[in-house]
Amino acid sequence: MAKRKQGLGWIEWLRGWMYVIYEMLFQRITASHLHNPLELPPLSDLTCIVTGSTSGIGREIARQLAEAGAHVVMAVRNPKAAHELINQWSASWHGLPLNIEVMQLDLLSLDSVVTFANAWNARLAPLHVLINNAGIFSIGEPQKFSKDGFEEHMQVNHLAPALLSILLLPSLIRGSPSRIINVNSVMHYVGFVDTEDMNAVTGKRKYSSLLGYTSSKLAQVMFSSVLHKRLPVEAGVNVVCVSPGIVHTNVARDLPRIVQAAYHLIPYFIFSAQEGSRSALFSATDPQVPEYCELLKADEWPVCAFISQDCRPTNPSEEAHSVETSFEVWEKTLEMIGLPSDAVERLIEGKEVKCRYGTQND
């Protein structure tokens, strides 16, 4: 029997970091053809849910979609902050009134995810775009676990968005053609997922926030690739991962010294939140994206669509192409989020699916 892989080989690791550094140094050049802000078509017939939309990239995504006429649902941990933002945006906006609402969602609680999805599905309204934007990178901090017992990066960046995406399938099918957009990261190139140790507790690999973050982002790509395969073309739901590029944030402390040195050149190299929002906005609205996804599906390509910070299709990491590991991540994820292995198939057929979390078990 083949020996189980324990981590990235040093050549893969080096190649991954070279990719990250290349992206940081040249992202502004490769994306120089894009307008800032990105020009959006009129979106008055679009309903979008955006998680983590009170700060950073998510705030830009929500504001620009709303200004283009979309019905935007800000799915946030802090509704008060979201309402304050809406008031600010409305005061400075001179077009038609913005169609934005706020719903509470805490990704550190899988109960909260189920409650949110149930509340949205109960409306029997179409959902056209789900943007899983919320994410955390707790730089340099010790390992932390959610009340559900999962390592926090893994839960917020992968498990909770995975649960949300699957539970909202009835609404996404109602709104088809529809899209699930996962805001991922170029950092997944240095990630490795050990499906026997998703919580990074066995000590096989020394925990760091960098390990937590990169493995959660790779897990998201792998899970998205299987979900993309499981959704039949007739369902009309496409799954896309996007890299926002390297956006200014306090990411530097936990990174190798050479990357830290590059961060001192931040003013020129690093994207603003507005620039970082472009790949997600493009993936959510461009008419050619579903065609590209369907092309990959027809070719039985091993990974889902991955759109780079320059709004062009790119290839996720070599590790992301491991079909075997991706299926292990899929199965393990469903087990962790309390869904049956046939959840997607049942929801596509219009059947009910019970989740281990949420109000129905109170």
UniProtKB/TrEMBL annotation:
One term of GO molecular function: oxidoreductase activity
A Pfam family per the record: adh_short
Domain of life assignment: Eukaryota
Keyword Oxidoreductase assigned: yes
Keyword Oxidoreductase: yes
InterPro entries (alphabetical): NAD(P)-bd_dom_sf, SDR_fam
Keywords: Oxidoreductase
Family affiliation: Belongs to the short-chain dehydrogenases/reductases (SDR) family.
This protein's name: Dehydrogenase/reductase SDR family member FEY
Designated gene of the protein: LOC107954310
